[in-house]
Description:
By secondary structure, the protein is an alpha/beta fold. The chain has two domains: 11-212, Spore Coat Polysaccharide Biosynthesis Protein SpsA, Chain A (Alpha-Beta Complex), CATH 3.90.550; 224-293. Helix content is 35%, strand content 17%. The protein contains eleven helices and ten strands. The strands form two sheets. The chain has a seven-stranded mixed beta sheet. The protein has a three-stranded mixed beta sheet with strand order 7-6-10, with no helix packed on it. Strand 1 (11-17), helix 1 and strand 2 form a beta-alpha-beta unit. Helix 8 (224-244) packs antiparallel against helix 9. The model is unreliable at 270-274 and 281-299 (pLDDT under 50).
Amino acid sequence: MANFIKHIPIISICILAYNHEKFIGECLEGIIKQKVNFFYEIVIGEDCSKDKTRKILINYQKKYPDKIKLFLSKKNLGAVENFIRTLNHCHGKYIAVCEGDDYWVDPNKLQKQVDFLETNSDYSVCYQDAEIINEEGIIINHKYGPKKDFSREELIKGPIIPLHSLCFRNVLKDYPIELRKMVGSHRFIISRLGLYGKGKWLGDSILPGRYRIHSGGSWSTKDKKEKLFIDANTCFWIYQYYKRIDKVEYANYWKNEFLRVVAKINTSDNILSFQITKRFVRLGVLNKLLQIRFRKLQF
């Protein structure tokens, strides 16, 4: 076990909060009750909520001023910009993430994850399972998560891992311009972590966290077509990132992922929720075949 210096955060817990007044207390209590032998900081990005989320967070910050760093948006930044802003204020050796409508169950989660990363330098991230709950906190799915380890190459392909289960090395010191163009950032963060090491599933050693689906959720409220757009947008900009840094193999993988997702969109529709194709054609990612495939779309 490593000897940690008091008051220097070994881990930063990154919390993203927006309109989470019904859930944010449960989220914070799951973090505050963690049993650890090191100092940690809770870094919260509150993105100009329309409910009482901000008031609740200010009260928690007053109660735990040595633990909580609260950043309040003057105007709504959006999910990705709020994530970047909050990550930039995380100064721990490691980072764990928990959105304000999710929460942790196991009080030993952080200790076990930090212990693992401290003794396994070839891993950049570790994670556990999750259970999906509804707005009332009732479990509706006991199985959410990959239940496997990932090699570096597999991580670079951006597998779906519950965001609130992640604990990773604070190695992503810069956040590329491509990230700011994404609608969702989760898979890009995981993919970039693959450049620094492997991923470890900690199995049953940590109790599953809770991932909440509710009427105000940023993902659960999206319809199928909107989710396809978000996936296509993410794949496209990850492709652009790897292309820019001259990682040809990875760029080609994400280009093909983009084409695969776009192919799922029903091109017989005359009206799409998002203006997807014109943007991507202009940026040069689609070949002639794909342009022909999408010639019926309204731009």
